[in-house]
C-alpha cells in the first residue's frame, strides 16, 4: 500500500472509530495487529510533523499576507 493511501486509511479509521485492519478486511489476527500498530505509528508521525511545522513557523516563501500555506495531496 502506498504511503499516502496508508495514511488515508489510518485517518478514516480514526474518524470512524474502527481499526484500520477492519477497513481493509484483514482476518489474520497477527497481521491485523501489525497493520493497526503501523497505522498508529503513521498517525503519530504525521502529528509530530504538523506540530514541528507549527512551532518552526512559516518558511520565507510560504507567507501569503500573514497566512501560512500548505500543499495537500489527494
**Cα radius of gyration in angstroms:** 16 Å
Instruction: Give, in spatial order, the strands making up the sheet with the most strands.
Output: 1-2
Low-confidence stretches: none
- What is the string of helix and strand elements? HHHEE
Q: What is the count of β-strands?
A: 2
Beta-strand percentage range: 5-15%
Number of helices: 3
Structural class: mainly alpha
Describe the structure.
With 74 residues, the protein is mainly alpha-helical. The chain is elongated and about 45 Å long. It has three helices and two strands. The mean pLDDT is 84. α1 crosses α3 (29-56). It has a two-stranded antiparallel sheet with strand order 1-2.
Question: What is the structure about, briefly put?
Answer:
The protein is mainly alpha-helical. The protein is 62% helix and 5% strand. It is elongated and about 45 Å long.
